[in-house]
Inverse folding.
């Protein structure tokens, strides 16, 4: 097993959060390694909705641009690889990559994203990231004024009222889920229809959604459908290192991405309450700056400048 000198920081994940953290650290001239498996969660989408300066840009283009920009910074290396395991060491962390290569890091940023659990509806994959979406702010604009549906009864009232921002034509497809009488009344008053039939699947042509199919053989024409896609950690790197998870399975982080394990940071979806690309970029900047601040404190024996969980801030 080959083991190299410790990097000042290793970042696992090269999506919006990881590339952004790397840019911050590269600009601070820190020896930084990004290890990226290249499976950013929004790759299925045609375009990134709501990212200032890049609104509608295909996700793959953004990641290619980010990598291109990082080439300006000679202390940053980006590698296409997967991290299999991570352990703590005396002076930081040791990661094992696929092929059993080991790399050491003084500080570690997990920017590994999350797995979005798409509902098991036949045909859903053909439309995921387009007409089937989990985030109206990301993709509602693309189906504005269309025939829209909310799938499932969980949080149906809130989701339907939200979707009404993009179209007056909204139906809740409960698909076997239960709605209270109060919920039904709220929806009725808001002009949202409810259809309680079981959904058997989605139908469309060339990625364009045309209808929801019901178990009774009937169909309802649709242009877009909002689904619940709960987020899950992609693997146990964070918990394996002892980091606590918080709400909705996100890594518990403070305002600069410090986890409950000193020296271990999380940025982007992995530690986010409201996952989106702009937030991931901002998280990356904060985590990168916090890592740099921690390294300065370590090198010079001074307290860190940035407030961090478990470490007193400088006055
Ligand atoms: C279908 C879809 C559409 C979306 N549309 C939008 C939108 O329009 N606008 C918007 O703002 N947000 C959108 N989002 C949300 C957005 O994609 C995420 O918030 C954002 O990608 C999070 O960035 P990230 O860097 O945290 O994670 P990701 O982009 O998921 O990147 C994580 C990276 O880490 C890598 N990785 C994970 N584990 C390892 C490992 N062990 N070793 C090496 N590499 C690893 C992955 O392969 C991946 O490349 C969408 C999400 C989905 C699922």
């Amino acid at each position: 097993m080959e083991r190299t000198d410790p990097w000042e920081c290793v970042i696992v994940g090269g999506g919006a959060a990881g590339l952004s953290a790397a840019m911050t650290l590269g600009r601070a001239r820190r020896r930084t390694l990004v290890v990226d498996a290249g499976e950013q969660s929004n790759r299925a989408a045609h375009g990134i909705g709501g990212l200032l300066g890049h609104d509608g840009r295909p996700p793959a283009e953004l990641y290619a641009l980010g990598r291109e920009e990082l080439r300006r910074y000679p202390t940053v290396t980006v590698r296409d690889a997967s991290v299999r395991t991570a352990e703590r060491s005396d002076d930081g962390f040791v990661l094992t990559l696929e092929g059993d290569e080991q790399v050491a890091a003084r500080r570690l940023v997990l920017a590994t994203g999350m797995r979005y659990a798409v509902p098991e509806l036949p045909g859903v994959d053909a439309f995921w990231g387009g007409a089937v979406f989990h985030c109206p702010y990301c993709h509602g604009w693309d189906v504005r004024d269309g025939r829209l549906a909310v799938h499932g009864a969980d949080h149906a009232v809130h989701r339907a009222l939200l979707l009404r921002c993009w179209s007056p034509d909204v139906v809740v497809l409960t698909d076997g889920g239960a709605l209270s009488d109060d919920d039904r009344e709220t929806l009725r008053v808001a002009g949202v229809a409810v259809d309680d039939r079981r959904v058997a699947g989605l139908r469309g042509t060339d990625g364009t959604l045309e209808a929801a199919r019901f178990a009774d053989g009937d169909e309802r024409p649709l242009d877009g459908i909002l689904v619940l896609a709960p987020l899950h950690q992609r693997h146990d790197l964070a918990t394996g290192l002892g980091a606590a998870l918080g709400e909705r399975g996100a890594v518990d982080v403070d305002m600069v991405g410090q986890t409950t394990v000193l020296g271990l940071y999380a940025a982007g979806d992995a530690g986010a309450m409201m996952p989106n690309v702009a937030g991931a970029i901002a998280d990356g900047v904060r985590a990168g700056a916090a890592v740099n601040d921690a390294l300065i404190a370590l090198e010079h024996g001074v307290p860190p400048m940035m407030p961090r969980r478990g470490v007193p801030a400088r006055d």
About this structure: The first helix runs from residue 16 to 27. The longest strand covers residues 102-110. The chain has a mean pLDDT of 95. The chain has two domains: 7-116+230-300, 124-226.
